[in-house]
C-alpha cells in the first residue's frame, strides 16, 4: 500500500470513528426510550410518558439545523478539523451528563427539563459533526472515487445504532432486570466518555483538509458563509433542491427503516425488548456493507438514480413489509398450549402468561396504579423461525436506506463550492434528517395511537406509515424533475 493510500485510510478511519461515537451518543437515548420514559417523566400515564420521551428524543433532531448553521459557519471560517473536535467534546459531555441526572421521582419536573436541555446540546453537536466529517473526507478523496470513500462515513450512523443496542444488550445480560431498571440503564451513557476521549486523541493528529488549506492560503475562504450560502439566490436554489429533492426523502427512509422499525416492534407489536434489539442488530449488520456498495456504484452510474430508486422502492414496500412484521408477532391467531395459561397475583400486580404451539410466548403484567386505573405491559417472544423472518424484513428495510443514504454525502459535497461547502450542505442534510426524519417515530406512533383509539380503520397499526410515504413521494417527484443527474462525480 502506498503512503497516499495509507494516509487516506487513516483519514477515513479517524473521521469515521469520531462520527460513529457521536451517533452512538445521539442514538443511545432513542434506544433506551422505553426505559427513560419511566425515569424522567410521570408514570401515571405510560403512553403519554413514552410519547414525551419520543418528543424529547425528536427535539435533538429539530435543533440539528441550528447546529449546522453554527458549526457550518465555523467550519468554513476556521477549518474542518477543529470544528468537529469541538462537536465531539460537546456531544460526549452532554451524553455523559444524561447518565447522571436523577429520576423524576427524585427531583420532579427538573428531570425532564435537564434531559431536554442536554438533548438539545446533543442535537447542536451532531448538526456540526456530520457535515464536517463528510466534507473532510470528500475533500481528501479523488473525485472519481468520492462516492466510495464518503460512503464509509455513511456507515457510521447505522453502526452507531448497532453499538448502542449491543452495549444495552450486554449491560442487560450482565445484571438482573431489577438492577438494570434501577441503575444499569445509566451505564451506556456513562461509558461513552471513554469512547470520546479515544476519538479525541485520534483526531488531534489529523491535518486540515487540503482543499480548505489551499483556499485559505490563497485567501479564498468566505468572510460570511451564511450570507453566501443563503443570501445568494443561485446557491439558495441548490440548498432547497438538496433538501426537498433529496435529503427529506432520504431522512425519512433512514428513520423509518431503522428507528421506527424498532419502535414498531417494541410498542406496537409488543415484541420482547431483547429479542427486538437482537433482530435489529443482526439486520443492521447484514445491511451495512450495502452503504459502501451503493456509494461505490454511484461513482460509476451517478448518485441521483440510486437514491431515487431506494426511495421509490421504500414507498411501494413499507405497508406490505410492516404488515407482515405485525402479523409475524401477532398471537391472536395462534393456538395456546393446553394448560399453559397462568395467572399470578403479587400485591397490586397481576401477571398473565401463555405458551403457544409454535413456540411463541405471551406475558402481560397488569399493575394497579390507582383504585380506578391499571397499567398493562405486554411482552411477546416469538420462535426462532419467526425471529429470522423479522431479521429478513429489517434487512430489506435497511437495503432501501443504503440506496438512499450511501451516495448522499458525495451528492451534497458536489453541489457546493469549497468555501461555503460545510455550511451549505449541512443545513439541508440536518433539516431533511433532523426535522423530517427525526420526528418520524414520534409522529408515526402518535398516528397509530389515534387510529387505534378511533377504531375507524382496518389496520390501525399501519397508519403511522402515511407520514413517510407521503413526504418521500413528494421528494421523489421533485428530485426526478428538478435535480440534474450527473454521470460522473464532479
TrEMBL record:
List the PROSITE patterns: MFS, SUGAR_TRANSPORT_2
Q: Where is the Major facilitator superfamily (MFS) profile domain?
A: 11-490
| CDD domains linked to this entry | MFS_ShiA_like
Where in or outside the cell it occurs: the entry states: Cell membrane
Query: InterPro entries of this UniProt entry?
Result: MFS_dom, MFS_sugar_transport-like, MFS_trans_sf, Sugar_transporter_CS
Annotated membrane-spanning segments are: 7-29, 49-70, 82-101, 107-127, 148-171, 183-202, 238-257, 277-298, 390-413, 434-453, 465-483
Key word Cell membrane present in the record?
yes
Which topology term describes how it sits in the membrane?
Multi-pass membrane protein
Main subcellular location: membrane
Which keywords fit this entry according to its UniProt record? Cell membrane, Membrane, Transmembrane, Transmembrane helix, Transport
> Which domain of life does this protein belong to?
Bacteria
Question: What PANTHER family does UniProt report for this protein, alphabetically?
Answer: MAJOR FACILITATOR SUPERFAMILY TRANSPORTER, SHIKIMATE TRANSPORTER
What is this protein called in UniProt? MFS transporter
Organism of origin:
Aquirufa originis
Amino acid at each position: 500500500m502506498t503512503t497516499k493510500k495509507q494516509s487516506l485510510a487513516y483519514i477515513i478511519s479517524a473521521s469515521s470513528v469520531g462520527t460513529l461515537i457521536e451517533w452512538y451518543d445521539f442514538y443511545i437515548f432513542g434506544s433506551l426510550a422505553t426505559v427513560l420514559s419511566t425515569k424522567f417523566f410521570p408514570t401515571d400515564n405510560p403512553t403519554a410518558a413514552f410519547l414525551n420521551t419520543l418528543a424529547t428524543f425528536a427535539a435533538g433532531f429539530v435543533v440539528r439545523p441550528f447546529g449546522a448553521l453554527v458549526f457550518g459557519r465555523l467550519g468554513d471560517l476556521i477549518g474542518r478539523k477543529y470544528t468537529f473536535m469541538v462537536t465531539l467534546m460537546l456531544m460526549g459531555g452532554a451524553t455523559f451528563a444524561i447518565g447522571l441526572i436523577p429520576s423524576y421521582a427524585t427531583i420532579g419536573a427538573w428531570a425532564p427539563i435537564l434531559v431536554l436541555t442536554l438533548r438539545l446540546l446533543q442535537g447542536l453537536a451532531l448538526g456540526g459533526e456530520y457535515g464536517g466529517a463528510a466534507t473532510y473526507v470528500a475533500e481528501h478523496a479523488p473525485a472519481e472515487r468520492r462516492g466510495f470513500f464518503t460512503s464509509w462515513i455513511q456507515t457510521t450512523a447505522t453502526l452507531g445504532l448497532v453499538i448502542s443496542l449491543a452495549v444495552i444488550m450486554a449491560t442487560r445480560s450482565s445484571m438482573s432486570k431489577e438492577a438494570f431498571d434501577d441503575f444499569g440503564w445509566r451505564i451506556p451513557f456513562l461509558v461513552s466518555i471513554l469512547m470520546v476521549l479515544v476519538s479525541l486523541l485520534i483526531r488531534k493528529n489529523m491535518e486540515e483538509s487540503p482543499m480548505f488549506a489551499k483556499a485559505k492560503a490563497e485567501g479564498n475562504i468566505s468572510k460570511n458563509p451564511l450570507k453566501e450560502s443563503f443570501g445568494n439566490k443561485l446557491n439558495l436554489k441548490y440548498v432547497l433542491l438538496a433538501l426537498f429533492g433529496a435529503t427529506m426523502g432520504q431522512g425519512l427512509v433512514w428513520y423509518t427503516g431503522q428507528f421506527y422499525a424498532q419502535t414498531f416492534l417494541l410498542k406496537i407489536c409488543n415484541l420482547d425488548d431483547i429479542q427486538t434489539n437482537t433482530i435489529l442488530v443482526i439486520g443492521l449488520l447484514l445491511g451495512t456493507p450495502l452503504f459502501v456498495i451503493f456509494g461505490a456504484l454511484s461513482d460509476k452510474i451517478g448518485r441521483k438514480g440510486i437514491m431515487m430508486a431506494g426511495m421509490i422502492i421504500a414507498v411501494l414496500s413499507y405497508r406490505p413489509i410492516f404488515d407482515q412484521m405485525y402479523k409475524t408477532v401477532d398471537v391472536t391467531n395462534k393456538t395456546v398450549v393446553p394448560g399453559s395459561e397462568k395467572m399470578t397475583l403479587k400485591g397490586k400486580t397481576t401477571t398473565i402468561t401463555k405458551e403457544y404451539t409454535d413456540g411463541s410466548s405471551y406475558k402481560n403484567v397488569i399493575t394497579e396504579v390507582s383504585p380506578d386505573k391499571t397499567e398493562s405491559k405486554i411482552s411477546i417472544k416469538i420462535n426462532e423461525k419467526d425471529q429470522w423472518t423479522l431479521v429478513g424484513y429489517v434487512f430489506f428495510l435497511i437495503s432501501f436506506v443504503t440506496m438512499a443514504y450511501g451516495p448522499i454525502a458525495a451528492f451534497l459535497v458536489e453541489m457546493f463550492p469549497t468555501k461555503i461547502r460545510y455550511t451549505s450542505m449541512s443545513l439541508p442534510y440536518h433539516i431533511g434528517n433532523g426535522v423530517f426524519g427525526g420526528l418520524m417515530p414520534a409522529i408515526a406512533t402518535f398516528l397509530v395511537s389515534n387510529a387505534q383509539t378511533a377504531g375507524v380503520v382496518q389496520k390501525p397499526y399501519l397508519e403511522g406509515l402515511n407520514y413517510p410515504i407521503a413526504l418521500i413521494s413528494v421528494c421523489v417527484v421533485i428530485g426526478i424533475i428538478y435535480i440534474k443527474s450527473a454521470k460522473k462525480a464532479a
